[in-house]
Hints:
The protein has 13 helices and 18 strands.
Amino acid sequence: MNIALRYAARSDVGLVRSNNQDSGYAGPHLLVVADGMGGHAGGDVASSIAIAALAPLDGESHGPDDALAELERSIDHARQDLVERSVTDPELVGMGTTVTAILRAGNKLAMAHLGDSRAYLLRDGELTQVTTDHTFVQHLVDTGRISPDEAETHPQRNVVMRVLGDFDIDLTPDMSVREAKPGDRWLLCSDGLSGFVSPETIAQTLADTPDVDECADHLLQLALRAGSTDNVTVVVADVVDVDGLPDGSAPGTGAQVVGSAAIDRDAPTSAADGPAARAAALMASAKAAATEDPATNDASEPEAGDAAPGETSGEGDDDVRPGRAPRRWVTVVAILLVVAGLGVAAWAGYRWTQTQYYVGVADGQVAVFRGIPENAGPVTLSTPIELTGTRVADLPGYVVDRLETTIPAESLDDARARAERLVADAAADTSTGTTDEPTDTSTEESTGSSEPEAPAVTPAPTDGAGSGA
Protein backbone atom coordinates (compact mmCIF):
# COMPACT_ATOMS: atom_id res chain seq x y z
CA MET A 1 0.00 0.00 0.00
CA ASN A 2 1.39 3.37 -1.11
CA ILE A 3 0.43 6.12 1.36
CA ALA A 4 0.54 9.89 0.88
CA LEU A 5 -0.71 13.02 2.63
CA ARG A 6 -3.22 15.49 1.22
CA TYR A 7 -2.84 18.70 3.24
CA ALA A 8 -3.73 22.36 3.71
CA ALA A 9 -2.30 25.04 6.02
CA ARG A 10 -3.85 28.33 7.08
CA SER A 11 -2.91 31.09 9.53
CA ASP A 12 -4.46 34.37 10.63
CA VAL A 13 -3.31 37.19 12.91
CA GLY A 14 -6.63 37.06 14.79
CA LEU A 15 -8.82 39.91 15.92
CA VAL A 16 -6.56 41.62 18.47
CA ARG A 17 -2.86 41.04 17.82
CA SER A 18 -0.90 43.44 15.60
CA ASN A 19 1.39 40.72 14.24
CA ASN A 20 1.31 36.98 13.66
CA GLN A 21 3.73 35.02 15.84
CA ASP A 22 2.46 31.63 14.65
CA SER A 23 4.08 29.65 11.84
CA GLY A 24 2.78 26.60 10.04
CA TYR A 25 4.19 24.15 7.50
CA ALA A 26 2.57 21.40 5.44
CA GLY A 27 4.41 19.22 2.93
CA PRO A 28 4.40 15.68 1.53
CA HIS A 29 6.34 14.30 4.51
CA LEU A 30 6.16 17.01 7.19
CA LEU A 31 3.43 18.85 9.12
CA VAL A 32 4.31 21.51 11.72
CA VAL A 33 2.60 24.14 13.85
CA ALA A 34 4.72 26.54 15.93
CA ASP A 35 3.18 29.18 18.20
CA GLY A 36 5.80 31.81 19.00
CA MET A 37 6.00 33.96 22.11
CA GLY A 38 8.33 36.54 23.56
CA GLY A 39 7.31 40.02 22.47
CA HIS A 40 6.74 41.81 19.18
CA ALA A 41 9.71 40.37 17.29
CA GLY A 42 10.74 37.44 19.46
CA GLY A 43 7.73 35.23 18.83
CA ASP A 44 7.92 35.81 15.08
CA VAL A 45 11.57 34.85 14.98
CA ALA A 46 11.23 31.84 17.29
CA SER A 47 8.45 30.14 15.32
CA SER A 48 10.19 30.89 12.01
CA ILE A 49 13.45 29.41 13.29
CA ALA A 50 11.61 26.26 14.35
CA ILE A 51 10.11 25.86 10.88
CA ALA A 52 13.50 26.56 9.28
CA ALA A 53 15.15 23.83 11.33
CA LEU A 54 12.47 21.26 10.55
CA ALA A 55 11.83 22.05 6.86
CA PRO A 56 14.83 20.06 5.54
CA LEU A 57 13.15 16.88 6.79
CA ASP A 58 10.46 17.28 4.14
CA GLY A 59 11.18 15.77 0.76
CA GLU A 60 13.65 13.29 2.22
CA SER A 61 13.12 9.56 2.69
CA HIS A 62 13.15 8.42 6.29
CA GLY A 63 12.88 4.92 7.62
CA PRO A 64 10.53 4.35 10.57
CA ASP A 65 13.52 3.59 12.78
CA ASP A 66 15.35 6.87 12.19
CA ALA A 67 12.42 9.27 11.72
CA LEU A 68 12.04 9.93 15.44
CA ALA A 69 15.75 10.55 15.89
CA GLU A 70 15.85 12.92 12.91
CA LEU A 71 12.84 14.83 14.23
CA GLU A 72 14.32 15.19 17.71
CA ARG A 73 17.70 16.19 16.29
CA SER A 74 16.13 18.95 14.19
CA ILE A 75 14.24 20.32 17.19
CA ASP A 76 17.49 20.42 19.15
CA HIS A 77 19.11 22.33 16.26
CA ALA A 78 16.26 24.83 16.48
CA ARG A 79 16.91 25.23 20.20
CA GLN A 80 20.59 25.89 19.56
CA ASP A 81 19.68 28.47 16.91
CA LEU A 82 17.36 30.23 19.37
CA VAL A 83 20.10 30.36 22.00
CA GLU A 84 22.63 31.77 19.52
CA ARG A 85 20.21 34.38 18.19
CA SER A 86 19.34 35.66 21.66
CA VAL A 87 23.05 35.97 22.48
CA THR A 88 23.73 38.08 19.40
CA ASP A 89 20.50 40.10 19.75
CA PRO A 90 19.62 40.83 23.41
CA GLU A 91 16.21 42.20 22.39
CA LEU A 92 15.19 38.63 21.55
CA VAL A 93 16.04 37.21 24.99
CA GLY A 94 13.11 35.22 26.32
CA MET A 95 11.70 34.22 22.95
CA GLY A 96 10.29 30.75 22.54
CA THR A 97 7.80 28.70 20.60
CA THR A 98 5.63 25.64 20.85
CA VAL A 99 6.33 22.87 18.36
CA THR A 100 3.95 20.14 17.25
CA ALA A 101 5.31 18.20 14.29
CA ILE A 102 4.53 15.03 12.34
CA LEU A 103 7.10 13.40 10.04
CA ARG A 104 5.86 10.67 7.70
CA ALA A 105 8.10 7.65 7.17
CA GLY A 106 6.37 5.15 4.91
CA ASN A 107 3.18 4.13 6.68
CA LYS A 108 4.43 5.42 10.03
CA LEU A 109 4.08 8.89 11.54
CA ALA A 110 6.76 10.15 13.92
CA MET A 111 5.51 12.91 16.23
CA ALA A 112 7.24 15.51 18.41
CA HIS A 113 5.44 17.87 20.77
CA LEU A 114 6.38 20.77 23.07
CA GLY A 115 3.94 23.32 24.49
CA ASP A 116 0.20 23.81 24.19
CA SER A 117 -0.39 23.60 20.46
CA ARG A 118 -2.30 20.42 19.69
CA ALA A 119 -2.55 17.42 17.38
CA TYR A 120 -5.96 15.82 16.88
CA LEU A 121 -6.78 12.60 15.03
CA LEU A 122 -10.17 11.93 13.45
CA ARG A 123 -10.44 8.17 12.87
CA ASP A 124 -13.66 6.35 12.04
CA GLY A 125 -15.67 9.43 13.01
CA GLU A 126 -14.12 9.78 16.48
CA LEU A 127 -11.89 12.72 17.41
CA THR A 128 -8.94 12.11 19.76
CA GLN A 129 -6.56 14.70 21.18
CA VAL A 130 -3.25 12.96 20.61
CA THR A 131 -0.96 15.44 22.36
CA THR A 132 -0.99 16.51 25.99
CA ASP A 133 -0.76 20.22 26.79
CA HIS A 134 2.41 21.16 28.64
CA THR A 135 0.55 23.64 30.82
CA PHE A 136 0.20 24.27 34.52
CA VAL A 137 -3.53 23.51 34.56
CA GLN A 138 -3.02 20.25 32.65
CA HIS A 139 -0.55 19.25 35.37
CA LEU A 140 -3.21 20.04 37.97
CA VAL A 141 -5.73 17.92 36.06
CA ASP A 142 -3.28 15.03 35.67
CA THR A 143 -2.54 15.04 39.40
CA GLY A 144 -6.24 15.17 40.30
CA ARG A 145 -6.10 18.60 41.92
CA ILE A 146 -8.72 20.13 39.59
CA SER A 147 -11.24 18.79 37.10
CA PRO A 148 -11.10 19.38 33.32
CA ASP A 149 -14.11 21.70 33.68
CA GLU A 150 -12.31 23.73 36.35
CA ALA A 151 -9.27 23.96 34.09
CA GLU A 152 -11.34 25.81 31.49
CA THR A 153 -11.72 28.83 33.77
CA HIS A 154 -8.60 28.53 35.90
CA PRO A 155 -6.80 31.92 36.19
CA GLN A 156 -3.47 30.28 35.27
CA ARG A 157 -4.77 28.23 32.37
CA ASN A 158 -2.37 29.97 29.95
CA VAL A 159 0.86 29.17 31.82
CA VAL A 160 3.01 26.98 29.57
CA MET A 161 5.57 24.87 31.44
CA ARG A 162 7.52 23.36 28.53
CA VAL A 163 8.49 25.26 25.41
CA LEU A 164 11.26 25.38 22.82
CA GLY A 165 13.16 28.49 23.86
CA ASP A 166 16.48 30.28 24.04
CA PHE A 167 17.38 28.63 27.34
CA ASP A 168 20.63 26.72 27.17
CA ILE A 169 19.17 23.55 28.64
CA ASP A 170 17.77 20.41 27.06
CA LEU A 171 13.97 20.24 27.06
CA THR A 172 13.09 16.87 25.55
CA PRO A 173 9.84 16.90 23.57
CA ASP A 174 7.19 14.20 23.81
CA MET A 175 8.09 11.69 21.08
CA SER A 176 5.90 8.93 19.64
CA VAL A 177 5.30 6.83 16.52
CA ARG A 178 1.85 6.02 15.13
CA GLU A 179 0.38 4.06 12.27
CA ALA A 180 -0.75 6.03 9.22
CA LYS A 181 -4.13 4.59 8.30
CA PRO A 182 -5.92 5.59 5.08
CA GLY A 183 -9.01 7.58 5.97
CA ASP A 184 -7.37 9.23 8.97
CA ARG A 185 -7.59 13.01 9.18
CA TRP A 186 -5.03 14.91 11.25
CA LEU A 187 -5.36 18.42 12.62
CA LEU A 188 -2.43 20.39 14.03
CA CYS A 189 -3.40 23.75 15.51
CA SER A 190 -2.28 26.57 17.77
CA ASP A 191 -4.37 27.45 20.81
CA GLY A 192 -5.91 30.28 18.81
CA LEU A 193 -8.26 27.55 17.57
CA SER A 194 -8.38 25.02 20.41
CA GLY A 195 -8.71 27.74 23.04
CA PHE A 196 -11.80 29.27 21.45
CA VAL A 197 -13.67 26.54 19.56
CA SER A 198 -15.10 23.51 21.35
CA PRO A 199 -13.78 20.00 20.59
CA GLU A 200 -17.29 19.01 19.52
CA THR A 201 -17.40 21.74 16.88
CA ILE A 202 -13.89 20.90 15.71
CA ALA A 203 -14.85 17.23 15.37
CA GLN A 204 -18.01 18.04 13.43
CA THR A 205 -16.12 20.33 11.06
CA LEU A 206 -13.41 17.75 10.41
CA ALA A 207 -16.02 15.06 9.77
CA ASP A 208 -18.39 17.11 7.62
CA THR A 209 -15.92 18.91 5.33
CA PRO A 210 -14.25 16.42 2.95
CA ASP A 211 -11.97 18.88 1.14
CA VAL A 212 -8.87 19.70 3.20
CA ASP A 213 -8.64 23.28 1.92
CA GLU A 214 -12.26 24.00 2.73
CA CYS A 215 -11.88 22.32 6.11
CA ALA A 216 -8.85 24.41 7.04
CA ASP A 217 -10.65 27.58 5.92
CA HIS A 218 -13.72 26.68 7.95
CA LEU A 219 -11.76 25.94 11.12
CA LEU A 220 -9.95 29.25 10.87
CA GLN A 221 -13.26 31.04 10.32
CA LEU A 222 -14.70 29.37 13.41
CA ALA A 223 -11.89 30.76 15.56
CA LEU A 224 -12.38 34.27 14.17
CA ARG A 225 -16.13 34.00 14.63
CA ALA A 226 -15.44 33.06 18.26
CA GLY A 227 -13.54 36.33 18.67
CA SER A 228 -10.11 34.70 18.94
CA THR A 229 -7.75 37.15 20.61
CA ASP A 230 -4.75 35.02 19.66
CA ASN A 231 -3.13 34.15 16.35
CA VAL A 232 -4.79 31.16 14.70
CA THR A 233 -2.94 28.47 12.74
CA VAL A 234 -4.30 25.16 11.44
CA VAL A 235 -2.84 22.32 9.39
CA VAL A 236 -5.27 19.68 8.12
CA ALA A 237 -3.94 16.48 6.51
CA ASP A 238 -5.64 13.37 5.18
CA VAL A 239 -3.88 10.01 4.93
CA VAL A 240 -4.72 8.58 1.50
CA ASP A 241 -3.98 5.30 -0.30
CA VAL A 242 -2.46 6.52 -3.56
CA ASP A 243 -2.92 3.13 -5.25
CA GLY A 244 -6.68 3.43 -4.84
CA LEU A 245 -7.00 6.94 -6.27
CA PRO A 246 -8.27 7.71 -9.79
CA ASP A 247 -5.70 8.92 -12.31
CA GLY A 248 -4.83 12.58 -11.88
CA SER A 249 -6.13 12.83 -8.32
CA ALA A 250 -2.89 12.20 -6.45
CA PRO A 251 -2.11 14.71 -3.68
CA GLY A 252 0.06 17.69 -4.55
CA THR A 253 3.66 17.88 -3.41
CA GLY A 254 4.15 21.62 -2.99
CA ALA A 255 4.99 22.84 0.51
CA GLN A 256 2.65 25.33 2.16
CA VAL A 257 4.16 27.79 4.64
CA VAL A 258 1.93 30.18 6.58
CA GLY A 259 2.16 32.68 9.41
CA SER A 260 5.31 34.58 10.34
CA ALA A 261 7.54 32.16 8.42
CA ALA A 262 5.72 33.07 5.19
CA ILE A 263 5.59 36.86 5.55
CA ASP A 264 7.46 38.93 2.95
CA ARG A 265 8.31 35.98 0.73
CA ASP A 266 6.66 33.41 -1.48
CA ALA A 267 5.94 30.05 0.09
CA PRO A 268 8.62 27.56 -1.03
CA THR A 269 7.84 24.59 -3.23
CA SER A 270 9.64 21.35 -2.47
CA ALA A 271 9.78 20.30 -6.11
CA ALA A 272 11.30 23.60 -7.24
CA ASP A 273 13.62 24.49 -4.39
CA GLY A 274 14.42 21.39 -2.39
CA PRO A 275 14.63 21.17 1.39
CA ALA A 276 17.95 22.99 1.74
CA ALA A 277 16.72 26.00 -0.24
CA ARG A 278 13.50 26.08 1.76
CA ALA A 279 15.41 26.06 5.02
CA ALA A 280 17.69 28.87 3.84
CA ALA A 281 14.72 30.97 2.77
CA LEU A 282 12.96 30.39 6.07
CA MET A 283 16.03 31.33 8.09
CA ALA A 284 16.49 34.48 6.01
CA SER A 285 12.89 35.39 6.71
CA ALA A 286 13.43 34.90 10.44
CA LYS A 287 16.54 37.09 10.40
CA ALA A 288 14.74 39.80 8.44
CA ALA A 289 11.88 39.81 10.93
CA ALA A 290 14.33 40.34 13.78
CA THR A 291 16.10 43.30 12.15
CA GLU A 292 13.12 45.16 10.69
CA ASP A 293 12.17 48.49 12.17
CA PRO A 294 9.09 47.87 14.36
CA ALA A 295 7.10 50.65 12.73
CA THR A 296 7.87 49.29 9.26
CA ASN A 297 7.02 45.76 10.35
CA ASP A 298 3.67 46.87 11.73
CA ALA A 299 2.86 48.64 8.50
CA SER A 300 3.44 45.47 6.51
CA GLU A 301 1.30 43.36 8.83
CA PRO A 302 -2.40 42.85 8.10
CA GLU A 303 -4.97 44.61 10.22
CA ALA A 304 -6.73 42.53 12.86
CA GLY A 305 -9.00 40.03 11.19
CA ASP A 306 -7.33 40.37 7.76
CA ALA A 307 -5.20 37.66 6.26
CA ALA A 308 -1.46 37.98 5.83
CA PRO A 309 0.24 36.61 2.69
CA GLY A 310 -0.50 32.92 2.44
CA GLU A 311 -3.33 33.25 4.98
CA THR A 312 -7.09 33.40 4.93
CA SER A 313 -9.78 34.87 7.11
CA GLY A 314 -13.55 34.88 7.29
CA GLU A 315 -16.56 34.14 9.42
CA GLY A 316 -18.46 31.00 10.31
CA ASP A 317 -21.83 30.21 11.82
CA ASP A 318 -21.11 27.28 14.10
CA ASP A 319 -21.33 27.29 17.86
CA VAL A 320 -18.24 28.46 19.67
CA ARG A 321 -17.24 28.77 23.26
CA PRO A 322 -15.91 31.81 25.14
CA GLY A 323 -12.32 32.77 24.43
CA ARG A 324 -9.37 32.79 26.76
CA ALA A 325 -7.13 35.55 28.02
CA PRO A 326 -5.30 37.36 25.19
CA ARG A 327 -1.86 37.10 26.71
CA ARG A 328 -0.25 33.87 27.88
CA TRP A 329 1.97 33.74 30.92
CA VAL A 330 4.80 31.44 29.92
CA THR A 331 6.58 29.55 32.71
CA VAL A 332 9.33 27.31 31.42
CA VAL A 333 11.45 24.76 33.21
CA ALA A 334 14.39 27.15 33.37
CA ILE A 335 12.32 29.47 35.56
CA LEU A 336 11.28 26.68 37.88
CA LEU A 337 14.94 25.72 38.27
CA VAL A 338 16.12 29.13 39.49
CA VAL A 339 15.95 28.01 43.10
CA ALA A 340 18.01 24.93 42.29
CA GLY A 341 20.94 27.14 41.35
CA LEU A 342 21.51 25.89 37.83
CA GLY A 343 23.62 28.88 36.85
CA VAL A 344 23.35 30.53 33.47
CA ALA A 345 20.41 28.48 32.21
CA ALA A 346 18.26 29.30 35.20
CA TRP A 347 19.35 32.93 35.18
CA ALA A 348 18.34 33.23 31.52
CA GLY A 349 14.87 32.01 32.44
CA TYR A 350 14.59 34.45 35.34
CA ARG A 351 15.85 37.29 33.17
CA TRP A 352 13.04 36.63 30.69
CA THR A 353 10.41 36.96 33.41
CA GLN A 354 11.70 40.45 34.14
CA THR A 355 10.72 41.56 30.63
CA GLN A 356 7.05 40.83 31.36
CA TYR A 357 4.45 43.14 32.96
CA TYR A 358 0.97 42.90 34.44
CA VAL A 359 -1.53 44.75 36.63
CA GLY A 360 -2.37 43.41 40.08
CA VAL A 361 -2.62 44.34 43.76
CA ALA A 362 0.19 45.58 46.02
CA ASP A 363 -0.17 47.16 49.47
CA GLY A 364 -3.93 47.23 48.97
CA GLN A 365 -3.59 49.36 45.82
CA VAL A 366 -3.87 48.82 42.07
CA ALA A 367 -0.28 48.33 40.94
CA VAL A 368 1.87 47.69 37.89
CA PHE A 369 4.16 44.67 38.27
CA ARG A 370 7.32 43.59 36.49
CA GLY A 371 7.62 39.81 36.11
CA ILE A 372 5.00 37.07 36.12
CA PRO A 373 2.57 36.16 38.93
CA GLU A 374 4.37 32.93 39.83
CA ASN A 375 6.84 31.66 42.40
CA ALA A 376 9.75 29.27 41.87
CA GLY A 377 9.96 27.76 45.34
CA PRO A 378 10.84 30.63 47.68
CA VAL A 379 11.70 32.95 44.77
CA THR A 380 9.02 35.49 43.79
CA LEU A 381 9.10 36.16 40.06
CA SER A 382 7.36 39.56 40.18
CA THR A 383 7.81 42.95 41.82
CA PRO A 384 5.40 45.92 42.04
CA ILE A 385 7.10 48.87 40.36
CA GLU A 386 4.31 51.49 40.27
CA LEU A 387 1.30 52.17 42.50
CA THR A 388 -1.76 54.04 41.24
CA GLY A 389 -2.85 55.34 44.64
CA THR A 390 -6.26 53.72 44.14
CA ARG A 391 -7.36 51.50 47.02
CA VAL A 392 -8.68 48.11 45.99
CA ALA A 393 -11.22 48.29 48.82
CA ASP A 394 -12.89 51.21 47.04
CA LEU A 395 -13.39 49.33 43.76
CA PRO A 396 -16.40 47.28 42.60
CA GLY A 397 -16.26 43.55 43.16
CA TYR A 398 -15.87 42.65 39.49
CA VAL A 399 -12.79 44.88 39.25
CA VAL A 400 -11.28 43.30 42.35
CA ASP A 401 -11.83 39.85 40.83
CA ARG A 402 -9.93 40.88 37.70
CA LEU A 403 -7.07 42.30 39.71
CA GLU A 404 -6.77 39.22 41.90
CA THR A 405 -6.37 37.00 38.83
CA THR A 406 -4.00 39.65 37.37
CA ILE A 407 -4.25 41.48 34.04
CA PRO A 408 -1.37 40.65 31.65
CA ALA A 409 0.13 43.39 29.48
CA GLU A 410 2.32 43.53 26.39
CA SER A 411 4.76 46.12 27.80
CA LEU A 412 5.32 48.59 30.65
CA ASP A 413 3.43 51.32 28.79
CA ASP A 414 0.60 48.90 28.08
CA ALA A 415 0.45 47.92 31.77
CA ARG A 416 0.27 51.58 32.79
CA ALA A 417 -2.49 52.23 30.28
CA ARG A 418 -4.46 49.19 31.44
CA ALA A 419 -4.16 50.28 35.08
CA GLU A 420 -5.32 53.81 34.31
CA ARG A 421 -8.20 52.55 32.16
CA LEU A 422 -9.28 50.11 34.84
CA VAL A 423 -9.32 52.80 37.52
CA ALA A 424 -11.13 55.27 35.26
CA ASP A 425 -13.78 52.74 34.23
CA ALA A 426 -14.34 51.67 37.83
CA ALA A 427 -14.71 55.30 38.91
CA ALA A 428 -17.20 55.92 36.11
CA ASP A 429 -19.21 52.86 37.11
CA THR A 430 -19.22 53.99 40.73
CA SER A 431 -20.36 57.52 39.84
CA THR A 432 -23.29 56.18 37.82
CA GLY A 433 -24.20 53.54 40.40
CA THR A 434 -23.21 50.64 38.12
CA THR A 435 -21.74 47.67 40.01
CA ASP A 436 -21.78 43.93 39.79
CA GLU A 437 -23.92 43.66 42.93
CA PRO A 438 -27.53 44.84 43.52
CA THR A 439 -27.60 48.41 44.82
CA ASP A 440 -29.95 50.12 47.23
CA THR A 441 -32.38 52.38 45.37
CA SER A 442 -31.81 55.01 48.03
CA THR A 443 -28.12 55.29 47.10
CA GLU A 444 -27.11 58.90 46.90
CA GLU A 445 -26.53 60.26 43.42
CA SER A 446 -22.94 60.91 42.57
CA THR A 447 -21.74 64.46 42.25
CA GLY A 448 -19.04 65.68 39.97
CA SER A 449 -17.93 64.48 36.56
CA SER A 450 -19.41 61.30 35.10
CA GLU A 451 -16.02 60.49 33.60
CA PRO A 452 -13.50 61.29 36.34
CA GLU A 453 -9.86 61.55 35.49
CA ALA A 454 -7.81 58.47 36.37
CA PRO A 455 -5.35 58.98 39.24
CA ALA A 456 -1.75 59.33 38.13
CA VAL A 457 0.47 56.28 38.36
CA THR A 458 3.32 56.78 40.83
CA PRO A 459 6.45 54.70 41.47
CA ALA A 460 6.13 52.09 44.20
CA PRO A 461 8.28 52.46 47.34
CA THR A 462 11.37 50.29 47.09
CA ASP A 463 10.65 48.70 50.47
CA GLY A 464 6.92 48.21 49.96
CA ALA A 465 6.87 45.22 47.62
CA GLY A 466 3.64 43.26 47.62
CA SER A 467 2.35 40.13 45.98
CA GLY A 468 0.58 39.99 42.66
CA ALA A 469 -0.60 36.43 43.09
